Amino acid sequence: MSAQQNFQSQPSDIVICSAPKTGTTWLKSLTFAIVTRTTFDDSTSPLLANLSHDCVPFLEVDLAQSSTNRDPKNPLLATHVPYSSLPRSIIDSSCKIVYICRNPKDSFVSFYHFIARLSASKDMKPVALEEAFELYCQGVSNYGPYWDHVLGFWKASLDRPDKILFLKYEEMIEDTILYVKKLADFIGYPFSSEEIKKGSIDKIVSMCSFENLSNLEVNKSGKHREGTPGVIENKIYFRKGKVGDWENYLTPEMATQLDSITLQKLNGSDLTL
Ligand code: A3P
Predict the structure, then answer these.
(1) Is 245 close to ligand 1, i.e. is its CB under 6 Å away?
(2) Mean pLDDT over all residues of the chain?
(3) Separation of 38 CA from ligand 1 center, angstroms?
(4) Transmembrane segments in this chain: where (predicted)?
(5) What is the DSSP string of the chain?
C-alpha cells in the first residue's frame, strides 16, 4: 500500500512484472544485460557477481517506503503486484511494462519447491505437496490467484500493446534469441545491425542462461537480503529451469484438475497457458 501510494514512476522506467516462480530472475537478468550492454559486457557485467534481484529492485520491498533510494542510472524495477494494484503512476506514465507468465503446473511445482527449500533453510515445517496444491487451486497464493494475475496483465496488454509486452516462459525458452530481440526493441534499447553481426544477442542469451547463472559462485553460495529477516540463499532461485517438470511431481488427476481450472478461468480470453 505504501508503494502504491508513494511510488513515482518516471517515463523512462521499465517495470518487470510477474507472478512468483514464472521466470522473474531470468527476465530481470536479460533485461538488465540489455539495458547495461554499452557499459558492461559478458565478462564485466554485475550479473556475474550479483543475483539479478540485487541488480533490479522490487517495488513492494526495496522501493516500498520511498522511490528516492533508486539508482538514477538504472531504469529497471520489478514487481509481483497484480495489475489492478499497481501504483497509479506506473499505469498512467508512459513507462514500459514487461510481463512474464508460465504454465500453471510448472509454476506451481516451482513455487512448491521454493517454499520447501525456504522452509528448510529457516528450520520451518514443510508444507505437503497435496496441501499446497489444494491451496493453489483455490487461489490461495502470494499476490493472489495465479489466473487472475495473468489475466490482469493479459487484458491490459491487449488494451495497451505499446505499453505492455506479454511474454511466456515456454516461448522464451524455445527461442530465447528472438525474444531478447523483441524485448530490446520494446523497451527502447534495440540492437543495431552491427551488434547483431557481432553476436551481442547470443552473448547476452548465454550469459543469462540457466546453466551459466546457476553455476556462478554468487548464485551457489551467496545470499539475498543478507542481515535482514528476509534473507534467502541465492541458489533457491535456481532449480531446474525446465519446461514440463510438473510431470515428475503431479499425478494425472492433479494435472487434469489444474488444467480444467485454467481452461475455465481463461475461457473467452484467447489466452492459453
Ligand atoms: P524451476 O523451479 O521450474 O526450475 P522466479 O525467477 O520467478 O522466481 O522463477 C523461478 C524459476 O525460474 C525456477 O524454475 C528457476 O529454476 C527458473 N530460472 C531461474 N533462472 C533461470 C534462467 N536463467 N533461465 C531459465 N529459467 C530460470
Answers:
(1) yes
(2) 96
(3) 26
(4) none
(5) -HHHHH----TT-EEEEE-TTSSHHHHHHHHHHHHTTTT--TTT-GGGTS-GGGTS-BHHHHTSS-GGGS-TT--EEEE-S-GGGS-HHHHHSS-EEEEEE--HHHHHHHHHHHHHHHHHHTTPPPPPHHHHHHHHHTT--TTS-HHHHHHHHHHHHHH-TTTEEEEEHHHHHHTHHHHHHHHHHHTT-PPPHHHHHHTHHHHHHHHTSHHHHHTSHHHHH-EESTTSTT-EEGGGG-S---SSGGGGTS-HHHHHHHHHHHHHHHTTTT---
Predicted confidence (pLDDT) per residue in 98-115, tens digit: 999 999 999 999 999 999
Q: What does pLDDT average to in each consecutive run of 10 residues of the chain (273 residues)?
A: 91 98 98 97 96 96 81 95 96 97 98 94 89 97 96 98 98 98 98 97 98 98 92 96 98 98 97 97
Ligand 1 atom 20: the closest Cα is on which residue? 26
- Return d(Cα 256, Cα 263) in angstroms, integer: 10
| Assessment of whether the complete model's pTM goes beyond 0.80 | yes
Q: What domains does the chain contain, in order, with CATH numbers?
A: 2-266 (3.40.50.300)
From its phi and psi, is residue 247 left (phi > 0), alpha (psi between -120 and 50) or beta?
Answer: alpha
pLDDT at residue 67, as a whole number: 66
CA separation for the pair 96, 210 (Å, rounded): 25
**34-69 pLDDT, tens digit each:** 999 999 999 999 999 999 999 999 999 999 887 667
Strands 223-224 and 232-233, by their bridges, are antiparallel
Q: Whose CA is nearest to atom 2 of ligand 1?
A: 110
